[in-house]
Amino acid sequence: MSPVSAVPAAPSAEALAHFQRAFGFETDCWDVHDAFSRELRDFVLLDVRSHALYERGHVPGAVSLPHGKITEGKMAVYPKDTLFVVYCAGPHCNGAHRGAIRLAALGRPVKLMIGGLTGWIDEGFEVASGTAAAA
Hints:
The protein has helices at 3-6, 12-22, 29-37, 51-56, 72-75, 95-105, 116-122, and strands at residues 26-28, 44-47, 63-64, 84-87, 110-114. With 135 residues, the protein is an alpha/beta fold. The protein has a five-stranded parallel sheet.
């Protein structure tokens, strides 16, 4: 028996519920790129890495707000129902999860962009540099 099959798969109904629920917590690079390409900006994309990393390269249209700086005061400029999408370097980084936790603790709607900047680059999407959108 392989390590893959050593633990049986969840029943189909449970798997369906699990994977459907995941979309309430995450989105991906393609969906963010598609929304921005069509000027459907009904969310704020937060790059939660350091300002220095943001300056070296970030998703165009993202706002720089390191996860440790997410506070009620910083978020006060956004309506309470603003949806935030957070990302960090990529799957090897937990900064996006830290940012999502801080936003959720403040009662803010939040999703994680899976893949982060690494996923964005892997998809061949444009990367911007500079400080224009820093918060």
